[in-house]
Every structure is written in C-alpha cells, then in structure tokens.
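Bit of a strange request maybe. I'm writing a small parser for structure token strings and I need a real example to test against, not something I typed by hand. Could someone generate the tokens for this chain?
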Amino acid sequence: MRRHYGRGKEKRGWSGPKHGPRRHRRSGHGNRAGSLPPGVPQTPANAGPSSSGDPSSSSSTQNSVVPELPGFYYDSEKNRYFRLLPGHNNYNPLTKESIQYQAMECKRLRLLEEEEKQKKKTTRAGLNSSVLLQKRQLGLLSSTSYCRLVHELKVNCMQRRKIEIHSPDSSVAGTNNFKIIVADVACERIFTVNDVEHGGCKYGIINLSGLGKESLTVEMYDNLYFTNRKVNSVCWASLTHPDSHVLLCLMGIAETPGCASLLPASLFSSSNPGDRPGMLCSFKISTAWSCAWCLNPQADNCFSTGLTRRVLVTNVVTGHRQTFGTSSDVLAQQFARQTPVLYNGCRSGEIFSIDVRQRNRKGQSWKAIRLFHGSAVTSIHLMEAEHYLMAADMAGKIKLWDLRTTKCVKQYHGHHNEYAILPLHVNEEEGLLTAVGQDCYTRIWSLQDTHLLRTIPSPHPSSKDAIPSVVFSSRLGGRQGVPGLLMAVKQDLYHFSYI
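Reply from user aminoacidic:
Good idea to test on real output. This should exercise your parser:
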C-alpha cells in the first residue's frame, strides 16, 4: 500500500510548503509553532488553521478539550500550538503563568465592560418581579420563598459604586491596602486590617451609619496601634457588651512569640482618649491560624485559638487555659451558641467538634462529630439551627454537612482555591452564600438549591495581594441601613447596591 506523505503534511498545517524553508523557524528567538513532539495525535486542536476551510471547525475546536503538551501552549485565536521559549531568551519570553494571567485579565475586563453596559440576565428563566408578585398573590409561593427569590433578583441587579472614605487624619485614609474586613453582628461597623507600605499591619474601624442610597461616604477611625507582624485571623468579641472588643491572632517573628490580642472597639473612636473604657490584653501563644469567641453563657468570656496541632481555649478574665491536642493544624473555628461546643477545621481535611466543658484528656477521645474533606479546610460556618455546617477547602469545594447524619447534603460549585485561607459568608435570612475565590472573583449562590446566581469580577487586576475582602448584608449600617455587598480591594472600598 502506498502512503501519501505529501498529503499528510498539507493536513497537518504546522509545517511549511513542500519546497522552500519552513515557516516560524527563527534562529535564537521568537515563537516556534512547528514540530510538535512525535506521538501527538492529529486532532483539530493541534492542527493549524489550514486544516479546514469550514468556519464551523473553529467552533468545534473551542468546544473540544485541548490537551496540554509539555513545552507548548495552545492559542485559541490562532487555533494552534506554540513552543514556550526558555527564560534566557528575552525577545518574547513566554511562561505558562503569564499566558494564564493574560487570559484571566482579558476575561475580567470583558465582564467589567458587560457590567457597565448592564448586560445582565435573570438567574432563572422566566423569573422577574411581576411574576413573583403574581405567584405570591395567588398563594403559589410562601412568604419565605418569595423573599428569597426577590433577593436573588436584587443580587443579580447590583451595581458597583465607589465609596468615599473620610478620616479625622486625612493622611491615613486611602493610603494603605485593605487586607481583611469583618463586620459586627449588626453590620454597623467594619473592622479593617490594612497592610502598611513599610511592612506590618494597621487597624481601623469604619462606621457605616453614613452609608445610604444617595450618600456614599463612610467614616474610618484609625488608631496608633501598629504591628510589624502578620494578622492571621480576626473576629469580634463580646466581653462587656455585644461586639465590644476585637480579637486578633498575630504571627510570631524571630524571637518574638505569637500572641492573641484583645482590643476594645472604643479605642477606634473620635472621643477623648482618656474616656475610653475597656480591657486591653494580650496572650502569648505559638503561631495561631484561627480564632473564635464563645457566646454561650456556660463558657462565658472564653475564646479559642487554632494552633499548630493544638486547640487552646482561654478565659479572658481568669486566664485559665484548656489545651486539646490535634493531629493537624487548625485553620478554621466557630463556637455553637446553644451549647459550648467548638467546631474546628484542619489542614488534614478533618472537621471535628469539642465540648469545652470537659477537662483535658490525653489522646483524641474528646472528639465528638467528625467529618472529612479531601483537602485542607479553610472556613466553616455553623447554621442558625445548628443542625448543618458549611465548610470550604483548598480544593475549591464548598459542602453543606448534616451534623445529625454526618453526611454531605449539598455542594456549591464554581469556587476557586488552591492554597489560600479564604472565608465563607452565609446569610440565611436572604438565602445567600458568598465567597471570594483565589482568582479574585466574588461568587454568590442560592443556599436553597446551590444555584450560582452571580459572578462579580474584581475592579483591580487579579493578583495574590489583591484578593477582595467582602461583607454582605440586607442592612448595611444597622436596622435602617441599605442592602448590598461591600468589597474592599487594594486601597478602595466599593458598594454593590440594590437597585
């Protein structure tokens, strides 16, 4: 049987003409789009643009799975592979990371442009306010379902507006990058951790009372408290009254050990410094990954810190400590309210609970409920009825666990994470779940049926130091507040408001 070698070369498309020099072949520099490795099957994904004149071939190529080839990258626009050049070649150096970043940036800019043009679609087919109202009047929807679906519609129509931050010290506002923002229970105040240019962190509290439908200004009160250590975890604490203090976990550096600091919220106010009541204390600990404050009266004035292979429960007033040994680092914690039970998420993927009323025990016989993820657990959230627990891990999986049967009952898809400790934000009243991925996209799901309602791109280019920190509430600023999403990224604060 005679083989037609010439015809086969014409189909491949990456080689040059039959006679003459080969194309895309440069000496010393440039992208080379020829000579795929031997053994690579001939498919539309690795064929050149001359493989077919049918315009439908490009659409089929985009829908097909393009295999990764070592030393090559695939250009979807040109529909062909290009060789990655070594790093010492400065003519047009290409890396896999730079190509992925360029593709992500193009996608982000496209989504931002669509948002500015208000090209939004309803999250569910046939769902609009008039249809919902009609079904509610006919008795086809309960009040709970009606409110949940209305919130879905509003979330889909949120528009981004930049907030102007005022500060008594004009040299402070807008000069440091936001790292963490955490709202109190009433969503009246936001505690902020900001990175300082010369290293370290600075703290502040933003008062949201001035945030309204027309006004987009907030007051930020800083304090002279400054640390040159990294802040790993933050939570509000109720010592003298609800949300009276802020608990911070600081990493140790060099010979300085880590610590858990309890700061009165009154330190961040415009009143006379001599009139600021409260308790300011610090507890030396090893590196803490997480912290949680207990609101159950049976463990009054207690907080927990998740350490390296340990859980440490401390009473602020008496200084008494309980230590529970673990087999892994504890990256996430939350206390139950109905009982003094502490839930912990570990680097090993295990989630377990501790009844802090029991005394220290050797081994791990004190573990009650035990759940398992396939990757490190970065965030947990106990639902209000305390029968369900939401957990996220470093594989990007978000699962809802039934604590009575210790089984996963729901999964929320689309979250992106590889190695970062990222929080979850659950709003049961609105029926929404919010999470920011390592790709800097903010995603909002329906708690009811796990449907992804909206994906919000960051206003700034994606990077490791520009992952947004968000707060969502239907009452930002208190009972008379406005609903929406707060997003802090870089030096800016944005409000995604309901229309």
